[in-house]
Design brief:
It is globular and about 30 Å long. The longest helix is centred in the C-terminal third of the chain and has 11 residues. It is built from 5 helices and no strands. The protein has a single domain, classed as 434 Repressor (Amino-terminal Domain). The chain is an all-alpha fold and about 70 residues long.
């Protein structure tokens, strides 16, 4: 599964893949595989990115167009 939203969120913050990879304590190559859907993103990384970007995990995964969950 290709995660366009991961790329969009990253670019909205004017970050490159290396910077996001550092946030996740992984390599740029691994992070690039997440964005392109060539490698499954671990739950820990998904949660970290959702918290960092201030969006829901469902938004990142494309399960909703609502950026945040209703409280």
């Amino acid at each position: 599964m290709y995660f366009q939203r991961l790329r969009d969120l990253r670019e909205d913050r004017d970050m490159n893949q290396t910077q996001v990879a550092e946030l996740l304590h992984t390599s740029q190559t691994v992070y690039s595989r997440y964005e392109r859907g060539f490698q499954t993103i671990p739950v820990e990384h998904l949660l970290t990115l959702a918290d960092y970007y201030g969006v829901s995990t469902d938004y990142i995964l494309g399960r909703t167009n609502q950026m945040k969950m209703a409280e």
